[in-house]
C-alpha cells in the first residue's frame, strides 16, 4: 500500500494529535473533515445563489418602489386632472401593485433572515473545519509517504477499508446470531433427548420388573413341568411294566404274539383276549364245580340204597 521511502527523504514529524488518538478516530476525523469541507462548499454555493437572488430582489424592489412612486404621482396627477373622478380600474391596479410590493418586501425579509442563518451555519462549519484542519495537514504529510496522488484518493481508500470492516463486522454479527440460534436448537434437542432418555429408563424399569416377575413364573412353571415329567416318566415306567405283564400273561394264557396273531404292542387286544380266556375258564370251572357237586351228591345216595 505504501511506497518505500528513499534514504534522503526527511521523515515527517509525528503530529501531536496522533499521539493521543487511535487510527480509527483519526480516520473518522479525516472523513468528517472531508464531509465538512464539502458541506462548506455547498453552503458557499448556496450563499452565493441566495446573495444573487437577494440582489435581484433588491433591484426588483427598487423598480417596484420606483413604479409605485410613479404610479402615485400619476395617480395624483389623475386626481388633479379628473378632480376626484377616480376610476375603479386605476384603483385596483394601484392596490395590486401595492400588494406585490408588500409581498416582495416580505420575501426580501425572509431571504434576509435565511441569509443570516446561512451565515451563522457557515461560521459554525468554518469553525469545525478549522478544528479538523490539523488532521488535513497530517493527511497531507502522510500522503507523501504513500502511492496515492491526493488526499481524496487516500481518504477514499480508508473509507473503503472501513466499509469492508463494517461488512465483515455485520457478517460476523450474522454468524454469531446463527450460532446463538443453533445453540438454542441444540439445547432444545438436548432437553428432548433427556426427556426421552428418562421416559425410556422408566419403561426399562417397568420391563425389568415384568421380566423378574416372568422369570419367577418361569421357575414355578419349570418346577411344575419337572414334576409333570417325573410323573409322566413314572407312569410310563408303570405302563411299560403293565404292558410286559400283560404280554407275559397273554403268552401264558392265549398263545404267541406276532405273525398273524395279535401285535406285540396291541395291549388292549391282548387284554380283551385275556378277559375272554378268563371268562371261558371261569365258566369251565363253574361247570366242573357243578359236576363235582353232582358226583358228590350221587355218591352219598348210593350207600343208602345198598342198605
From TrEMBL:
Among its keywords, does the record have Coiled coil? yes
Q: Which residues form a coiled coil?
A: 26-128, 172-224
Which UniProt key words apply to this protein?
Coiled coil
PANTHER family in the cross-refs: COILED-COIL DOMAIN-CONTAINING PROTEIN 42 LIKE-2-LIKE, COILED-COIL DOMAIN-CONTAINING PROTEIN 42 LIKE-2-LIKE-RELATED
Q: What is this protein called?
A: DUF4200 domain-containing protein
Q: Give the species this sequence originates from.
A: Crenichthys baileyi
